[in-house]
Amino acid sequence: MPGRQTMPVKDAARLAQKLADELQLELVDVELVKEPTGRFLRFFVDTDEGVSVDELETFHRRILPLVERVDYDYMEVSSPGADRPLKTERDFERAQGVRVELNTYRAVESKKHFAGELIGLVDDKIVLKTDEGRELAFPRREVAVVRPLIEFDESDLDAFFPEEDAPGRNG
Fold first, then answer.
1. What is the pLDDT of residues 75-115, one digit of tens each?
2. Is residue 92 within 8 Å of residue 126, measured between CB atoms?
3. CB burial class (10 A; 0-12, 13-18, 19+) of residue 66?
4. Position 170 confidence tier, pLDDT thresholds 50, 70, 90
5. What is the pTM of this model?
6. Cβ(111)–Cβ(138) under 8 Å?
7. Are 40 and 74 in contact (CB under 8 A)?
8. Which whole-number Å values give the CA distances from 38 to 2, 29, 34, 59, 117, in the listed order?
9. What distance in Å separates the CA atoms of residue 136 and residue 37, rounded to the nearest whole number?
10. Neighbour-count burial of 101, counting CB atoms closer than 10 A to its CB (0-12 exposed, 13-18 middle, 19+ buried)
């Protein structure tokens, strides 16, 4: 429609934060991403105990009229998942002692990928204790992403798939 002004995503994020606070949810992230099928406006919400489908549906229903001026094709509201990236100071506090993976923008000691126990965020540096027992500190601005490391092996899969139903097994 000619002359119609669109709302910037940062304004949508501000409205989403107010709604999340009202619903006692944590607004983890808001993104507007162009994909082959269109522009996706995504809201990620959570609570310390996890977020229910009912909470997601309530947030979706209530945010929809507030962001109608954002230029998007599809809107999604979801939980960020167990491997959500750590972004805020609160994220780093909650994840202390958790095994994480960390990727840097540029190679450090000839590597860009590190794993270890998160010591924490200290003086704007992300501190890890590697599997070798070394403590490494990465300036936050040089880190592309930090997220909990989800590890599982075949015995973990066996708990979800009975022997005869397991993928790749002839039964």
1. 999 998 878 888 888 889 989 999 999 999 999 999 999 99
2. yes
3. middle
4. low
5. 0.66
6. no
7. yes
8. 21, 19, 6, 22, 38
9. 41
10. middle
Secondary structure E strands in 11-166: 26-35, 38-46, 74-78, 99-108, 111-122, 125-130, 135-139, 143-148
Listed in sequence order, the DSSP H helices in the chain are: 9-22, 53-63, 89-94, 154-160
28 neighbors 45 (Cβ within 8 angstroms): yes
Is the Cβ–Cβ distance between 42 and 31 less than 8 Å? yes
Q: Quick check: 144 and 104 in contact, CB under 8 A? A: yes
The residue count for the chain: 171
C-alpha span between 67 and 12 (Å, rounded): 6
CA dihedral 16, 19, 21, 24 (to 10 degrees): -120
